[in-house]
Design goal:
The protein is of the alpha/beta class. It folds into 3 domains: 241 residues, Aminohydrolase, N-terminal nucleophile (Ntn) domain (Glutamine Phosphoribosylpyrophosphate, subunit 1, domain 1, 4-Layer Sandwich), CATH 3.60.20; 194 residues, Rossmann fold (3-Layer(aba) Sandwich); 161 residues, Rossmann fold (3-Layer(aba) Sandwich), CATH 3.40.50.10490. 33% of the residues lie in helices and 22% in strands. The strands form 5 sheets. It has an 8-stranded antiparallel beta sheet with strand order 3-2-4-1-10-9-11-14, covered by helices on one side. It has a 6-stranded antiparallel beta sheet with strand order 5-6-7-8-12-13. It has a 5-stranded parallel beta sheet with strand order 18-17-19-20-21, sandwiched between helices. A hairpin with a 4-residue loop joins strand 2 and strand 3. The longest helix is centred in the C-terminal third of the chain and has 22 residues. The radius of gyration is 25 Å and the shape is globular. The structure holds fructose -6-phosphate (F6R). The site of fructose -6-phosphate has 15 residues, from helix 9 and helix 16. Fructose -6-phosphate binds next to helix 9 and helix 16.
Length: 609
């Protein structure tokens, strides 16, 4: 999704703006731009395509300035063209960058056109620039003009604006999209994401819903949604610049796949005290809340939704609580019935996904007993708005395709299942054995990573196909769903997942030698059923790629290839079998030459509905 940066300093900040925008490239975008004030009025440069294009353009114009704003745009209203790229300028006086969507922009646009404003773009953002300009005719400062503009806007946004009348000052505001202020020495910054500011500072103010920040090189004042000055703490980030760099890896996705062993260890360890799970980590009230929970309802999007589905199997099997997982984007539009004593769980890497946040807000109104977020970003909106929080410790995830965030979410789900199982009669020896299993997760991942070159060889089978089916059963069905999502999003091969038992109810008709099947088939209770399903495929000439352990005892045949996985407890299998599917998609995408880290049309952190 869109990203924004801004700086006000006593040095040329164009190089910072360009670097900041480069750090935000991972979010997905199609055009970029900057605006600055340099004593000769408001200047802007914008270009379609990569930040590199913008950098070249800036180098050729020699643009410089001590303050400015920049943006990477992911098109929503209007095609990716230069006139739709941000910043948007009104009458050479005001420039604005904006993340999010202004839902009532058409009405505002008509009003402004009636007042004589000309529009250069098809965007919703341009109305903000003109509206601020309009208010500046009666207001004496950019701050008050923006304070008048914001209540007129419907939708979600993070904005940053500058005015030619007030050089050195950036006004930024958030409603629904994240914004962080970076504190420097005699210079201050704004960005939609800390990763854009790590080269400049480790000190941050995380703006809250409805906040407006008035930023100059020597001071930052934050106003809350009621217009009163708000004390917001300066927090030191422990994130380093190297955590958001590729290092020696060719792609962020590969780096992040390899980081999973550490990420799982780091996610589990804060919950352990002498091998006993500490439920108080979820929040002060955790024990009391969990004691009263009779049902669980999970909402999330995309990959996080798949972790939720795995969680629903676990919470029923181990936690003995009725549990269902559903897409956050569907939940609030279907008049859900809220059962008593139900915990509402949201999962998200970013904690800013618009549909997941909206589902949470709906659930809070709807009367769920309590809410829990499982999230990778401690400062995110989702975390701030839930009663209990489980912060996964995956570290920054830059590749658009989620990898380590997913496996750490699975770890969190395992922990939650054990905490509920405590209340449904598992004894301490059983609990200890489950915890011991969780401690093995990192090692299991390491042994799966050792299969990388074999998996790369497997990947050659998929390079030229147009379609692919993924099969799994039980808790491996959502892993098959995740495998299919990974393949389609980064290699652009059409892929679907089915529970093995569903094949003969329709998809079997698709099987021919051009429709390979990828199966995840560890040795578990459902293995005989899965084998029967795979035989049905083989009997019809389908090609099979099977991920299974030694005990599954698959025999190779001319139409099937088997990759032997380490043997693990059923409880850990979803985490373990995710890894080869991630690597499979990765290698297929690399062979096909697609943009692995920034797949076409996709964005990281989907902050619009
Ligand atoms: C797929 C992927 C997306 C996200 C989804 C939710 O690889 O990354 O499907 O999982 O957009 O995002 P979060 O987890 O940030 O809520």
């Amino acid at each position: 999704m869109c990203g924004l940066v801004g700086a006000t300093a006593n040095r040329d900040i164009i190089p910072f703006l360009v670097d900041g925008l480069r750090s935000l490239e991972y979010r997905g975008y199609d055009s970029a731009g900057v605006a600055t004030l340099n004593g000769q009025g408001l200047k802007k440069e914008r270009s379609v395509g990569k930040v590199e294009e913008l950098a070249k353009q800036l180098a050729s114009t020699g643009m410089s300035g001590t303050m400015g704003i920049g943006h990477t745009r992911w098109a929503t209203h209007g095609r990716p063209e230069e006139n739709n790229a941000h910043p948007h300028v009104s009458t050479e006086l005001v420039a604005v960058v904006h993340n999010g969507i202004i839902e009532n922009y058409e009405t505002l646009r008509r009003d402004l056109q009636n007042l004589g404003y000309d529009f250069d773009s098809q965007t919703d953002t341009e109305v903000i620039a003109h509206r601020i300009h309009q208010h500046l005719q009666s207001e004496d400062s950019l701050l008050t003009a923006i304070q008048k503009t914001l209540p007129e806007l419907e939708g979600s946004f993070a904005i940053a604006a500058i005015s030619n009348n007030e050089p050195g000052r950036i006004i930024a505001a958030r409603r629904g999209s994240p914004l962080v202020v970076g504190i420097g020495t005699d210079e201050n910054f704004i960005a939609s994401d800390v990763s854009a500011l790590l080269s400049e500072t480790q000190d941050f103010i995380y703006l809250e819903e409805g906040d407006i920040a008035d930023i100059s090189s020597h001071a930052v004042t934050v106003y809350n949604q009621y217009g009163r000055i708000a004390e917001r703490p300066i927090q030191k980030s422990t994130m380093t610049k190297s955590a958001v760099e590729k290092g020696d890896y060719p792609h962020f996705m590969l780096k992040e796949i390899y980081e999973q062993s550490t990420a799982l260890r780091q996610t589990l360890s804060p919950y352990l005290d002498n091998d006993t799970l500490q439920e108080s980590r979820l929040g002060d009230d955790a024990s009391h809340i969990l004691d009263g929970i009779e049902q669980v309802h999970i909402c999330a999007c995309g990959t996080s939704y798949h972790a939720g589905v795995v969680g629903s199997y676990l919470l029923e099997k181990l936690g003995k609580r009725p549990c269902r997982a559903e897409h956050a984007s569907e939940f609030r539009y279907r008049s859900p019935v809220v059962t008593p004593n139900t915990l509402f769980v949201v999962l998200s890497q970013s904690g800013e996904t618009a549909d997941t946040l909206a589902a949470l807000r709906y659930a809070k109104e709807a009367g769920y007993a309590a809410t829990l977020s499982i999230c990778n970003v401690a400062s995110s909106s989702l975390v701030r708005e839930t009663d209990l929080t489980f912060i996964t410790q995956a570290g920054p995830e830059i590749g658009v395709a989620s990898t380590k965030a997913f496996t750490t979410q699975l770890m969190a789900m395992n922990i939650l299942a054990i905490l509920l199982a405590r209340r449904s009669g598992i004894d301490s020896a059983e609990e200890l054995s489950l915890v011991q299993s969780l401690k093995q997760a990192s090692f299991a991942i390491e042994s799966a990573l050792e299969l990388n070159s074999e998996i790369k060889d497997f990947a050659k089978q998929l390079v030229d196909v147009n379609h692919c089916l993924f099969l799994g059963r039980g808790n491996m069905y959502p892993i098959a769903m995740e495998g299919a999502l990974k393949l389609k999003e980064i290699s652009y091969i059409h892929a679907e997942a089915y529970p093995g038992g569903e094949l003969k109810h329709g998809p079997l008709a698709l099987i021919d030698d051009d429709m390979p099947i990828v199966a995840v088939a560890p040795n578990n209770d459902l293995l005989p059923k899965m084998k029967a399903n795979l035989q049905e495929v083989e009997a019809r000439g389908g090609k099979l790629l099977i991920f299974a352990d030694k005990k599954s005892d698959f025999q190779p045949s001319p139409n099937s290839r088997i990759l032997t996985m380490p043997s693990v407890d059923d409880f850990l299998a979803p985490i373990l079998y995710t890894v080869p599917l991630q690597l499979l998609s990765y290698h297929v995408a690399v062979f096909r030459g697609t943009n692995v880290d920034q797949p076409r049309n996709l964005a990281k952190s989907v902050t619009v509905e």
